[in-house]
Amino acid sequence: MTASSDVTRLSRRGLMGLGAGLGAVAVGAAVAPTTASARPGGSARRAVSMAMHVHSSFSEGGSWAAGGGGASMMAQLDQATRNGVDVVWWTDHDWRMNAYGYFQEIGFDGTPEGGKLTWTRQVEGSLAAGRHAFVADPHSTQESGRALQVEATAAGQGWSTCWLWAKAGNSFYSTNLSDTTLTVDVLGEQLGPDAELVVQLETSNRPATADRPAGLYLLEYRVGLEDGRSLDTPLTGVVTTRATGGWQTLTMDPVADVRRFWPDLVAGDTGLARIRFGVRVREGATGRACFDRFRFLRGPDIVQDPVTTQRELMDELATRYPQVTQALGSEVSMIRHMNVYMTDFELYPYPPTGKAPSLDPTVEGAQRVVDWYHDRGALVQYNHPETTVEEFVATRALGADLVEVPGEDDEVVAERLALFDAAARNAVFLTATSQLDDHAGRDWAGLRHGFVTSAWADSTEVPDLLEAMAAGRLWSHHLSRAPQARMDLVARGRSVMGQVLRTQASVLPLELVAQGLPEGTTLEVVVGLCDRTGATEPAVERHAVPVPPARGRPTRFLLERAGGRYLRVEARDADGSLLAMGNPVWLLPSDADVVVPPARRSLD
């Protein structure tokens, strides 16, 4: 198909008519803004802010240095509310949602167990001595092999613990705990009033609620002198089982226990970030215990239908956070990471696998998944691209519709802008979005990469958001440094940001909408060639233009078409760091042989 059938055509008369009243202005120059007010885009569309890359209890945890654990859906919705974000797209790792290739057991043999399992000793409190070993005797009578033996001696009066953290390679057990039971065989070799065996499940971070502080919720399953159930701290629930003197099986139902300890929570919104096995002691006592035959018993709500499970949690949480629209997508991660946005999300059907699968890094693997989702009407986003500009252009960004640009540090942003501009030069029509990519749910605005993406959309309903995303009516801005930023490109009273215009006219008069920017902002118009030659070097010119007054008319700019150009706008702070950026408009000759996505073909 040629461009003549699928790109908006504007006559020379029509385009020149857009500039009536501008006066004699040089092509490629800005005109100072006036004080007359104008609505951005000249339509009833509203600015809708979106967190487009958000992880929850269905993904792995956050940084251990930042406190470990992972975000609950509740924590992320709390962050959205605090930061005035209208929409949260849930984009948990698809393969984690259904525990694809996950550990189903831990044998305590002291080996990687086929899943890059490592053991890290951690001490809480003050110990006079602590040791661990993987021993052939004693071990559970239910299976052969070794068991983990842990011994600790207290140095003081208070409780101290010698832990062994079972760290599975690439978090091969971290996901939501709905419909999941855990079991482990344990032996209390030396226990008493001052020595207990303990298994700890580190679950999800949650916001402050019901007079409890924000933080990471823990479940501890102990073996001691008596059965019991108590709160050790406001965020630590303890289930104690009486020691039998021999091997016994602990059965753990984490979601049920969360519900019993904290009935005000949405218990199903509980993830598993970390498992630790240990002995806790006090008053100079010595304790010794063995652990063997750990089992993950996951039911169909996770293994077969996690999408329905997460949707049910969304419905339950919607009553608590009615001001935030929730939309379900996923980060497809057994290939190069890509977010999927669609009305009725479904998981990609990966082939059967053994334990600890590796992602397929090939171009072909990514394109196969992109095609599968495109066939189902989805939009696909290339996440945090780490590739060469040559591959990015040659593969047309793997066939993706959107790409993350703002995020992380200035150097990374510059690299991604170079990818984006090289693609734009070759008529690869991508919508730039931002990388929030938060796993913690603690402080979005405090993140260096705390960017969100806003859209000019008719509503916060998913079909309207998808239409805006496909059309390119998006801009990205930092939550704390430019929270109220609004950006658009307007021609003849209509938004043309993201559009592709083919015409015989030589110039396009534009109004540059840039509102809500902080004092000291530098506004730059980036004009790039779109010569479609396959060249992989961006060819851009930067023009400093006035920031429109808060209640004034947008800055005007004349874009010269020549053999093909595009224009986008950036806002930067005094140090040159990106605050906000909009998406381009492309202006091409009437005979340009390009194929354009349908959503970019009109001015509306």
What coarse outline follows from CA principal-axis ratios? Answer: elongated
Q: Which structural class do the helices and strands define?
A: alpha+beta
Q: How much is the average pLDDT?
A: 91
* Strand runs, count: 36
Q: Count every helix, treating DSSP H or I runs of 4 or more residues as helices.
A: 10
Major sheet details: 12 strands, mixed
Radius of gyration from CA coordinates: 28 Å
Helical percentage: 10-25%
- Distance from first to last alpha carbon: 22 Å
| Strand coverage percent | 35-45%
Ranges where pLDDT stays below 50 over 5 or more residues in a row are: 1-39
Which features would summarize this protein structure in a list?
twelve-stranded mixed sheet, alpha+beta, eight-stranded mixed sheet, 604 residues
Can you describe this structure in just a few lines?
With 604 residues, the protein is of the alpha+beta class.
Your description of this structure?
- It is a single chain.
- The chain is an alpha+beta fold and 604 residues long.
- The two termini are 22 Å apart.
- Strands 1, 3, 5, 19, 25, 26, 29, 31, 32, 34, 35 and 36 form a 12-stranded mixed β-sheet that branches. Strands 4, 7, 10, 12, 13, 14, 15 and 17 form an 8-stranded mixed β-sheet that branches. Strands 6, 8, 9, 11, 16 and 18 form a 6-stranded antiparallel β-sheet that branches.
- It has 10 helices and 36 strands.
